[in-house]
């Protein structure tokens, strides 16, 4: 390959990685020191009462007079099921509705339609409720197999376990089983556990924020066309049987989407797991300040047997650590980023968070 071609390929990768920063107004980059994360978050994501006039107008209206409804399996709340609680919310809702969920296991397939924004699912950190269902692609189609499917904007979840209880895929067709599908814009997840095997989290579309979460799976278990920031999140890979891939980001053409993982931890069972694969032509995934165990394949990334995608994928890493982060064995189409290249992914500006992101509910 000629020097000119190599230079052109590098330029393409840099352009694809840096482009999200254009027009950003957010400030306060995520610090490199993990001990500073909480203070950084508190300084950059203040409560609604301190943000008047800076948030999306519709969100400010919704947060002004929040309403709480209680779900308790024993009948002591307003509803016994999440399905009935969601059904009670009016279509075209303009008010924040906090669904306070009591402890226990809720075996339901829950859908929040696009016309019901400003919904919060809140559990207790001391007794975290579990939402579970055994939906599969064979019955519902992949993305619609989700235990919790959210199509509305401004959704928040805190202290919730969301699980797809279908068995581990055996290799047959249509065994994908989604725990959570988030298709609404401007959604935040705090201290949530997402549990499944193949396709656990469908980060479908929109801007999303995950903090202090746990995501477990086997193949493509964080996938979709979302533009999301994952902060301080534990990723547990079950790589002990067959192919294991963490991300299948679905960016095509020049879409402004991608996944940014910052101060995360990649652990698991087995070896040979890929950080991501080129499921589509131009996936964009960055891991920064992330600890990677030996579960990660030395090559790091896969072009999904499409070598023609090597020159246009955007797979980047920055100051990661641990035995799975060694750059010496990485595939040539991935990139160890410079500070300038990674900066757009180390800011709430990546998801325009200053306009909508709020702290978790008390």
From TrEMBL:
Keywords for this protein: Aspartyl esterase, Cell wall, Hydrolase, Secreted, Signal
Catalysed reaction equations from the record: [(1->4)-alpha-D-galacturonosyl methyl ester](n) + n H2O = [(1->4)-alpha-D-galacturonosyl](n) + n methanol + n H(+)
Broad EC category: hydrolase
EC number: 3.1.1.11
Active site: 220
A Pfam family matched in the record: Pectinesterase
Subcellular location: Secreted, Cell wall
InterPro entries assigned: Pectin_lyas_fold, Pectin_lyase_fold/virulence, Pectinesterase_Asp_AS, Pectinesterase_cat
Entry's Gene Ontology BP terms: cell wall modification; pectin catabolic process
GO molecular function: pectinesterase activity
Pathway recorded for this protein: Glycan metabolism; pectin degradation; 2-dehydro-3-deoxy-D-gluconate from pectin: step 1/5
Residues annotated as domain Pectinesterase catalytic: 69-353
Alphabetical list of PROSITE patterns matching this protein: PECTINESTERASE_2
UniProt superkingdom: Eukaryota
Signal sequence interval, chain numbering: 1-23
Primary subcellular site in the record, as a coarse category: secreted
UniProt record similarity statement: Belongs to the pectinesterase family.
Stated name of the protein: Pectinesterase
Naturally occurring in which organism (per UniProt): Populus euphratica (Euphrates poplar)
Gene: LOC105136616
